[in-house]
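sorry to bug you again but im stuck and you know this stuff better than me. below you get a single protein, a line of residues and a line of whole numbers that encode the local backbone shape. mainly i need to know what kind of three dimensional shape the backbone takes. anything you notice is useful, everything is just below:

***
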Amino acid sequence: MANQNQDAVVLVSGGVDSTVLLHHVVRLGHAPVHALSFHYGQRHVRELDCARWQAAAVGVREHRLIDISFLGEILQGGSALIAGGAAVPQLKELSAEELRQPPTYVPNRNMMLLSMAAAYAEAQGIFDVFYGAQAQDEYGYWDCTAEFLQRLNAVLALNRKQPVQIHAPFITWPKSETVRLGIELNVDFRHTWSCYRGDAYACGACPTCVERLNAFKAAGTEDPLEYAE
């Protein structure tokens, strides 16, 4: 359990889940809040503009955009999410086996990002780090599971002073619940980005676009983002 009214670090990608999480952590009373975003070579780098906008909207103490784009060079062959990698598929093209871990999975991304976030937090004397893992409705990633979170925290608990703890309050939630919470928190979803293809308009067909559209529909509201299809 995170200690409210204490500093917190929030990973903010600019997508729906991390954006709602940022607003949620602020409302819980954590102060000050530090936001971290990462440029890791992703196709949809425009999500980082949304991260900047949302960090400014809630008035974080500091928003750091960390450039680790060199990862794109070593991960390019392992993920369709990396610029220059394989084409981002449509959700309907994926087999049942691929839905367990789709081509858009980025090898060890969350472990690397959370390790850096934990290091930053510890250096700042902060002991609560939040990330927006969510129970994907259409497909799955192993580094967004409760088991991953538990094991990562077990490693961090080896710290011989005060260990940093990772929190993922939405980890068992369907995305529609996250959207509903965002509406309650007055999140401006126009300034969020989900599409993996990173074009001028969201494609409406890639795995994350379909999941996002379904979530807004299930939440009983319209997604304000513009779509190509």
Q: What stands out?
A: The mean pLDDT is 94. The CA atoms of residues 190 and 225 lie 6 Å apart. Strands lie at 8-11, 33-39, 62-67, 128-130, 165-167.
